[in-house]
Amino acid sequence: MGGGNLLPSEAHILQTWGGNGILIFRGYKYSWRNSKKRGGAYWTCSSHQKKGCKANVSTEETDKAIIVTKYNCEHTHSPPVIPKYIKIENKEKE
């Protein structure tokens, strides 16, 4: 387990065609599962159901960034190939 004090550029949220968010963190994709009571979100590895992967991430959003507050990055598989044509937007302000 780990958490907190990560650079904002390590976590990105993408919008899918269906409107759901996908979290990209350390080269892996995570699917949104639910919102936390304090305004954060809970994500599980996108291979959770298909491959039984137990990796998960908790995040909070600020005006400037997505902040990872807690994570378990013990995946049971290799990172997926993320197409280069996907535009990843960060909430960092210049």
From TrEMBL:
Superkingdom of origin: Eukaryota
Q: What is this protein called?
A: Uncharacterized protein
Species name: Choristoneura fumiferana (Spruce budworm moth)
